[in-house]
């Protein structure tokens, strides 16, 4: 069965296939869409290229990545340059890629559009995120190529309008690594705090001259766009010519059509400012002058309306003098007038005689009536007295009769006198208080008694008393 | 007048100056205020002029050292 069919070992056939592949194809350019893209820790990139009908595995060795020409990603339509080779251990063949290009403008634009939509959805292009440019920056940071017309245009424009301090951060603006350098420069400017030797810029210009779409791709790079978005310094983008629009123009704070225009945005024209300031200064001075003039005018006008103080004083003084004089004259005049009035009134007063006359006449009349009445009464009494004339005889007879009666009573009184009884030998006994003691029972032993005899009185003391028989101790 | 003008940006100083000019021209200020405003306006004007005069045209390139620190080199 073996016949003349050659026999290979596995290694031999693998090596033969490999030689055939490498020999027949040599360097190839393959167009396709990147898929299954994977970056390995080793630094190699693995992916597949596909189109409608097929798929081929590809790899970029670590050493080729930096010169690749673009950052591969899934969905990217590219033209890969490299060679076909096989991997004998796994019985697979693959494309060893050294360069990648975008597969035509359409693919490139589609990729840019995808990124634009993504960042727009994130809000990176929102008008609210735009920062206002400073009116007059002290330091302008410029991210561009150190060579070329762009930097020259910016420098001359700034020097012409308003010389300012320029800080240039030189970067590659196209080709491999450009995007990374631009992004690092923007972030680097933003990281300057101004406390060191390098001043912090007040505004940034990211600029590049015109070029093909591919040349401008660094300014469509997501890393650059995010660096612009994160930058806290107001940033002006000026990439390409007027008609070119790169995504950095969407995310920057201001978009300038050219680098020159960016410089004009960054600084005001000094000559205009000087003229404007002079104009304002003139207005300032004339404004104050007019104000003081107006104030002076008002002062003068008001002063003119102020009364003349000396003449006012003189008038007042005259009035005081006048009133003073009249005052001096007033009191004597008043007294005089009052005196005259008093006299006039006095003259009009009626005489007192006139007032008392009628009363007096009536008084006289009554007095005369009284006198005559009294006389009449006296006369009447005398007549009545005369009519009742008294006789002493009846009175004497009455006296005699009363005396005889008295004598009779005296004799009877004499006969009844205790003295007559005492003459007959009886004694009147009385206690010291003069009360008659008529009973022996009333005499207490030792008590003093007064005995009245016809010819006199003697005092005795009772020795004993007995109701039945009294005993007197003389 | 106690405010430190040196910290004031040209733009703010100019805006304040314009405001003072307008008020003075309006003539509604009291005289005392007008004079104070004028003095402030004059100071603002001097400040603006000095800002306009400090026109420094140095151009320097940033150089990043190996340790990451920045320094500048004149490009003239």
UniProtKB/TrEMBL annotation, chain A:
NCBIfam families in the record: xseA (TIGR00237)
Catalytic activity reported: Exonucleolytic cleavage in either 5'- to 3'- or 3'- to 5'-direction to yield nucleoside 5'-phosphates
Protein name from the UniProt record: Exodeoxyribonuclease 7 large subunit
All residue ranges annotated as the OB-fold nucleic acid binding domain in the record: 8-101
Family: Belongs to the XseA family.
Domain (Exonuclease VII large subunit C-terminal) ranges: 124-460
Keyword entries, A-Z: Cytoplasm, Exonuclease, Hydrolase, Nuclease
Automatic annotation (TrEMBL), chain B:
Enzyme nomenclature, EC number: 3.1.11.6
GO molecular function: exodeoxyribonuclease VII activity
The protein's name in its UniProt record: Exodeoxyribonuclease 7 small subunit
Its biological purpose: Bidirectionally degrades single-stranded DNA into large acid-insoluble oligonucleotides, which are then degraded further into small acid-soluble oligonucleotides.
Catalytic activity: Exonucleolytic cleavage in either 5'- to 3'- or 3'- to 5'-direction to yield nucleoside 5'-phosphates
Keyword Hydrolase: yes
Similarity comment text for this entry: Belongs to the XseB family.
HAMAP family in UniProt: Exonuc_7_S
Quaternary assembly: Heterooligomer composed of large and small subunits.
BP terms from Gene Ontology: DNA catabolic process
Gene Ontology CC terms, in alphabetical order: cytosol; exodeoxyribonuclease VII complex
Compartment(s): Cytoplasm
Cited Pfam families: Exonuc_VII_S
Keyword Cell inner membrane: no
């Amino acid at each position: 069965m073996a016949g003349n069919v050659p026999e290979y070992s596995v290694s031999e056939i693998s090596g033969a296939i490999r030689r055939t592949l490498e020999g027949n194809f040599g360097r190839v350019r393959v167009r396709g869409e990147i898929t299954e893209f994977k970056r390995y820790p080793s630094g190699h990139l693995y992916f597949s290229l596909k189109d409608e009908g097929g798929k081929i595995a590809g790899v970029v060795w670590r050493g080729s990545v930096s010169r690749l020409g673009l950052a591969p990603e899934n969905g990217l339509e590219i033209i890969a340059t490299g060679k076909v080779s096989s991997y004998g251990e796994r019985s697979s063949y693959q494309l060893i890629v050294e360069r990648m290009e975008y597969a035509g403008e359409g693919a490139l634009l589609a990729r840019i559009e995808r990124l634009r939509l993504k960042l727009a959805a994130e809000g990176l292009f929102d008008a609210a995120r735009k920062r206002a440019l400073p009116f007059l920056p002290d330091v302008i940071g410029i991210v561009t190529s150190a060579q070329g017309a762009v930097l020259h245009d910016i420098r001359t424009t700034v020097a012409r309008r308003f010389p300012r301090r320029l800080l240039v951060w030189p970067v590659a603006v196209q080709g491999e690594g450009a995007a990374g350098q631009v992004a690092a420069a923007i972030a680097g400017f933003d990281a300057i705090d101004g406390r060191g030797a390098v001043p912090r810029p007040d505004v940034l210009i990211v600029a590049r001259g015109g070029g093909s779409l591919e040349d401008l791709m660094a300014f469509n790079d997501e890393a650059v766009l995010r660096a612009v978005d994160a930058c806290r310094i107001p940033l002006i983008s000026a990439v390409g010519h007027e008609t070119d629009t790169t995504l950095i123009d969407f995310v920057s704070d201001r978009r300038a059509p050219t680098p020159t225009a960016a410089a004009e945005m960054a600084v005001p024209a000094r000559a205009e400012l000087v003229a404007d300031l002079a104009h304002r200064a003139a207005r300032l001075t004339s404004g104050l002058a007019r104000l003081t003039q107006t104030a002076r005018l008002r002062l003068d006008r008001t002063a003119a309306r102020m009364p003349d103080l000396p003449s006012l004083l003189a008038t007042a003084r005259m009035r005081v003098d006048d009133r003073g004089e009249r005052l001096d004259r007033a009191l004597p005049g008043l007294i005089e007038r009052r005196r005259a009035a008093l006299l006039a009134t006095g003259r009009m007063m009626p005489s007192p005689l006139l007032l008392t006359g009628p009363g007096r006449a009536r008084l006289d009349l009554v007095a005369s009536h009284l006198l005559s009445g009294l006389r009449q009464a006296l006369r009447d009494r005398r007549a009545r007295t005369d009519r009742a004339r008294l006789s002493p005889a009846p009175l004497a007879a009455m006296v005699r009769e009363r005396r005889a009666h008295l004598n009779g009573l005296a004799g009877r009184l004499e006969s009844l006198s205790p003295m007559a009884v005492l003459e007959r030998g009886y004694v009147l006994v009385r206690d010291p208080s003069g009360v008659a003691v008529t009973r022996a029972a009333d005499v207490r032993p030792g008590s003093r008694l007064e005995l009245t005899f016809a010819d006199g009185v003697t005092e005795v003391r009772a020795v004993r008393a007995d109701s039945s028989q009294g005993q007197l101790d003389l | 007048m106690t405010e430190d003008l040196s910290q004031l940006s040209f733009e703010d100083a100019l805006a304040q100056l314009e405001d003072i000019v307008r008020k003075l021209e309006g003539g509604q200020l009291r005289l005392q205020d007008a004079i104070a405003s004028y003095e402030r306006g004059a100071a603002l004007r001097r400040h603006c002029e000095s800002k306009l005069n400090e026109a420094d045209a140095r151009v320097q390139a940033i150089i990043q050292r190996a340790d990451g620190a920045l320094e500048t080199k004149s490009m003239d």
